[in-house]
Amino acid sequence: MSAQTKKEAPPPPRRASSSSTETTPDEQTGVLHWADQAARVVLERSKDKEEVVVSSGITPSGTVHVGNFREVITVDLVARAIRDAGKQVRFIYSWDDYDPLRKVPKNLPKQDLLKTYLGKPISETPDTTGTYRSFAERNEKEFEQYLPLLGIQPQFIYQHERYTSCAYAPHIREALRARHAIRTILNAFRKEPLPQDWFPLSIFCEACKTNKTRVVNYDEEYAVTYTCDCGHTNTFDFRTTGICKLPWRVDWPMRWHAEGVDFEPGGKDHFTAGGSYDSASQIIRTVWSEEPPYGFMYEWIAIKGGGEFASSSGNVLTLHDLLAVYEPPIIRYLFAGTRPGAKFNISFDLDVIKIYEDFDRCERIYYGAQEAKNEKEAKNMKRIYELSCVNTPAKTLPFQPPFRHVTTVLQLYEGDIEKTTNHFQDSFKTDQDRERTRLRVQCAKNWLERHAPESMRFSVQNSPPPDVLASLTPAQKAALKRVAALVSTSSAEEEIHKGIYEIAKEENIPPRELFQKAYLCLIGKERGPRLASFLKLLGPERVQNIFSHLS
Ligand SMILES: [Zn+2]
Questions:
Q1: Are 303 and 69 in contact (CB under 8 A)?
Q2: Predicted-assembly ipTM surpassing the 0.90 threshold
């Protein structure tokens, strides 16, 4: 169950320790990866079941962000580990969209209209942009659409459908009849005790549609009488009239019972002492004589670099933002490689390059193309890689265009994705190689445009900028012309690299100065990508053209 169930938003992004792929081996079993460890616990407690049920859920009362995604991916990774152990898994994803609207969403137009929906179900609150049927559906679909890209395909359950179709009637009856026991349990978690005549039921008034209602009578079966602040009063049968729901702390254990949930993690708010996991555990034991599912807490996500994520969705990081910069397997890798209880950063600064490099290394270790530090690391990396793949791993090592290099090539081609992709085509062995490269080029382009530090950006000049040209000494000009000639005669990068140093020495110019002037002529900046490989990428003709302006 994810944090948006709470009224408050999760804490603002903050700096945290960088992502870590450390795992603590389970000493008894030798199982390394946290998802496999969790799978073992789940399998042990559901030995007699044909199929294991894992669950995730959230109230779609706002833009679903990457912090919420951590829950979904955590459940997906454990589900995979259970399947890998040979057991069938049902992965349910509950949208708690029969909750009342508690706050007017700031990112939508027609605020006055939205205000009139406070206290009414979010499934009946309009999407005032006119795109979706409701505010809830807007938040749901904008998130759901990206999950298949990441290989995540849960069964979605829309709670407004369940509740309005009276699907939970028998369980609501059980909860209402156990109301005194439930009240005693909940009072231990509260400062202000619940009143004697409390009912674990929230009713949406049939006249004004809000939940400003109170139960005034219950026949101990299926008939409830309520009154509303608007003056309306009525008696209804909750087997045929779906206008009520259980409050969160009772709703959660009821659904564990109704769906037979074996595993559901939760955000910090639910898993702290006195949180709803504790009370829900007591309620399912008391009311339904069942054990609660296995669960654990996952930490919040912090954002590092990349500026503000201000968009129509507000200042939150969405899956869409993440997919713009990271290939789907790398997103899975970030979460698979970090224990759910550890905070970690999702980086949009220079760390993006490092993360791509780390992932590529993990991939090479999986295919035996690179040695790991030791056997333990090899085993761990291989498992992380398997869990990172959107589908099953390819048969052979895919082509890995280095991300940093891609950013350079892309800028040489002025951001042209096709030309940049084709630049690598001699290395493609499969269609997947081309697809991966194209995607990586697109991600690099998005990163350069939206998040990369200024030092990573450049554009190749047609001729040296006039002020640079004016500042060059005759010796510098001579040296640069020799560098251009060198690019025409040498094909090897290393040869060019050494040649530049020799030219600097012969022309009596400090190498650093020569490099600086070369960059200034080529890209109008004092620093740039590694010069020899950059000159080679530019090609003799383009280099000659630029340096021909020196005389
Ligand atoms: Zn009313």
A1: no
A2: yes
